[in-house]
């Protein structure tokens, strides 16, 4: 935001971290930032696929929706933190 304001930019911006993530990874990183243990059980993808057919929000939460990293390129480097670092900074 600082760069956009300083450079007096206008338009639509799609900021994101350098790396992609998924819901289970985010849950794990958030739990770790609060020093909480979490158990993620593998092998339940089939259940999510069945639920996603009936409940649209399941696909939003656990689906593979993403936008290209190319949309997030800016003339100056604004990606100063990794995903884990940014989670730690915002959760503490």
Give a topology summary:
Blueprint: H1 2-6, H2 23-33, H3 45-54, H4 56-62, H5 83-91
Helix pairs in contact: 2-5, 3-4
Q: Quick one: overall form?
A: flat
Oligomeric description of these chains:
single chain
How many β-strand runs? 0
Number of helices: 5
Radius of gyration from CA coordinates: 17 Å
In terms of structural class, how would the helical and strand content be classed?
Answer: mainly alpha
Low-pLDDT segments: none
SSE run: HHHHH
Distance between the termini: 20 Å
Determine the fraction of residues in helical runs and give it as a percent range.
40-55%
Biggest sheet descriptor: none
- Mean residue pLDDT: 88
Strand-residue proportion: under 5%
Quick structural summary:
This protein is an all-alpha fold. The protein contains five helices and no strands. Helix 3 (45-54) crosses helix 4.
